[in-house]
Amino acid sequence: MINELKETHNQNVDQQNGFHHLLDEMDISYKEEGYYLNIGGIPDADGWVLFLSVDVECVEDLIKLVCPIFAKRKIPFSVAKGKGEVEKINYFLLGPDEVGKIFAVFTIEEKATRDLISELVEVTKGFSGPCISNAIRLEGIIYVTRIKHLEKEDANGNIVREIKVDIPDGRRLPFHVAPKYRYWKTKRILKWRYVPMVMLNRSPKGDLLKAVDLKGFKFNWCFIKEGKYQMFYDRYGRTIKERLQWQAKVLQELQGHIPIPKFIDYFEQGEDTYLVMDFLEGVDLYSVIVKAHENRNWRDLAIDLQHQLLKYYLEILEIINKMHSMGYAHRDATAANFMILNSGEVYTIDLELSYNFQKEDPNPPFGMGVFGYASPEQILHKDPSVKEDIYAMGALLLHVLTGNHPFCYFDDKIVLDVVKMENDVEDPVLIEVIMRCFDENPQKRPELEDLKKIVKSMFP
Fold first, then answer.
1. Last residue of a domain, one of 278, 313, 341
2. Are residues 34 and 88 in the same domain?
3. How many domains does the chain have?
4. Residue 198 pairs with which residues in a beta bridge?
């Protein structure tokens, strides 16, 4: 009985904090499942999915406008069940493929879908939201993809049906795609100066491009970091645009003082923003760690390989120390954000979350961070300090020594699995210093110099 009362209480709290009451007021029946309120069900036949992306502050207004349209047409749809869920979706906490997918609307017939799109285009004008991956943007906040039902045999010989997302070719789509969203016609040249040649990584927050810089007809390679429209929209109204502007400023201020890519340019084209830097030939430390360990324990690595990994770590400590001396906290010091150049030098390549604690800039600090590397106070949006980097250096040392990403050692409440860490690290001195780095009280964490001395003691 007590458990039933608790469950009922929790449901009531969820509904008070969610969008349930809006659907109740419209007399729309729903079923709560996971992060969503589902109205109807996914059709059994192959069809279309329309996604509507929207910022957290405007979700309620959009619900009031579009839900009556879906109900009148008797179209099944899903909507994030509350503002907390919208934040998790839009802020990458559920993964990059879920970003922006606040509404999912399921249709079958092309004509009915086309008519619905036309109506949605009109009522959603003025709304904005982050870009959605694995779908074609039609207009504004409206995206579409295709779903197919497949039959296959399970392990017991039974025929089961599964749903597969089939991203359509935008050039053959039976719906109108606004000219500026026809991706197959974009990125041929940027700012009449940069010619993208290689897609290094496609991401919903923005693509990473290797390009040729035509300035002065020198045809130099450069690296372009793209920020897609409205991506990383935070509670202060900032997006990836402000993050890239900040990174451009930091690169120029720290140039020549710490090993970072040379700043070349920042510009906006269409709805997107672009940060241009020197192209560095090398490989990120994350990949180096994976290749070095190959599922092996630290003690099984050759001594020379151990020493090389530790030398990289010591160089990173020095980079962080130099940043601190110039008034900056890194705040995103993960293995993926340090590059080992072909020359053997170590560079830090992403300063998007950095913070100048002398000037208290940016104000407020940019949030987020990588789970496993980000300290509890950073996750809770507390005032930044250099102690956040100490926490990250403990996580990086754990990563170097085990080959495992630090998130493997924490549960969803950021509680460290001490037994697992002790089994994997083994060395009591290193275990002790990593534990100190992870102390919930930032003031009890060691200094960078302490870390340096302990790591250097591992060399003969």
1. 278
2. yes
3. 3
4. 210
